[in-house]
Amino acid sequence: MTAVIEARDVALSFGETPALRGASLSVEAGEVLAIMGPSGSGKSTLLHCLAGILVPDAGEVLFNGQRLDTLNEAGRSALRRDKFGFVFQFGQLVPELTAEENVALPLLLNGVRRADALAQARPWFARLGLDGMERRRSGELSGGQAQRVALARGLVARPQVLFADEPTGALDSLTGEQVMELMVGSAREQGTTVILVTHEPRVAAYADREAIVRDGQARTLSAGAGAGAGAGAGSVAS
Predict the structure, then answer these.
(1) SS3 23
(2) Which of 59, 58, 10 is CA-nearest to residue 217?
(3) CB-based contact 102:149 (threshold 8 Å)
(4) Strand pairing category for 193-197 and 32-36
(5) Number of CB atoms found within 10 A of residue 12's CB
(6) Can you list the domains of the chain with their CATH numbers?
(7) 11 has pLDDT over 50
(8) pLDDT, tens digit (0-9, with 9 covering 90-100), for 171-224
(9) Can you tell me the distance from the alpha carbon of 37 to that of 43, in angstroms, rounded to the nearest whole number?
(10) pLDDT for the residue 36
(11) Residue 201: which residues within 8 A CB-CB, separation 6 or more?
(12) What is the pLDDT of residues 22-65, one digit of tens each?
């Protein structure tokens, strides 16, 4: 299998505080990888380096075999817009936009005509059990509904990689499991690689493989035991 995302000996400090101390990670095409670790371990920092949001002080980050960390901000922004999707803990929907406009936003930012972007966004509402909520704004949605809208927004442009940072952290356990089932199922249908950060073993169980980040370094933990187990075979090293 081909590695889509790689981190090689990545180090990053915030001022005098080291966040990553030579973390290495390889994620295969179509794999669902869960990154776990205690609070402050560097797991979200590693995710942000993989996504080109942060630039490491040392080491390399590669996307499809090409250096991501050496791109300028414009280049990394274009990559995040064109190839990556994102789901965050609190959804981060734009409150002034309707739900369907929020889903269509990545397409609009990529220059897709408004009518076409909305037409591509609308089928996601039936797919994610949100029929009839297309015109609602974020304040009119429950937490689980808003997170499903955020998930649709992350996947609507068919990204090569979906990055999810604590995607169920603000949800109750049942709603969180529903969101994970939808996330993993939708990503597999599209062939999207998923890299998610979580501190919940029940969420990590949906992944093909788990990695632990501790004290700024990463290591393989085990294959996932949940719905997506068995599809990935990458490597994580400290």
Answers:
(1) strand
(2) 10
(3) yes
(4) parallel
(5) 21
(6) 31-48+73-228 (3.40.50.300)
(7) yes
(8) 888 888 888 998 899 999 999 999 999 988 999 999 999 999 988 888 766 554
(9) 6
(10) 92
(11) 36
(12) 999 999 999 999 999 888 889 999 999 999 999 999 999 999 99
Give residue 57's identity as a one-letter amino acid code: D
Strand stretches in the chain, DSSP E: 3-14, 17-28, 32-36, 58-63, 66-67, 84-87, 161-165, 193-197, 209-214, 217-223, 235-237
pTM over 0.85: yes
Task: Give the per-residue pLDDT at 215.
Answer: 83
Q: Hey, is 227 helix, strand or coil?
A: coil
Contact 12, 56 (CB under 8 A): yes
- Residues making up the chain, counted from first to last: 238
Going 102 to 164 to 204 to 43, the CA torsion angle's sign is negative
Burial of 137 (0-12, 13-18, 19+ CB in 10 A): middle
Decide if 32 contacts 203 (C-beta within 8 A): no
**C-alpha separations of 175 from 8, 83, 188 in Å:** 35, 28, 20
Sign for the pseudo-dihedral over CA of 167, 170, 174, 178: negative
* Average pLDDT score, the chain: 88
Structure tokens at 210: 């788990």
C-alpha distances (whole Å) from 151 to each of 91, 193, 223 are 8, 14, 24
Measure the CA dihedral 142/95/153/235, to 10°.
-80
Angle of the 173-190 helix axis to the 143-155 helix axis, nearest 10: 10
Nearest to 49 by CA among 165, 168, 206, 167: 165
Per DSSP, helices labelled H in 83-172 are: 99-109, 114-121, 123-127, 143-155
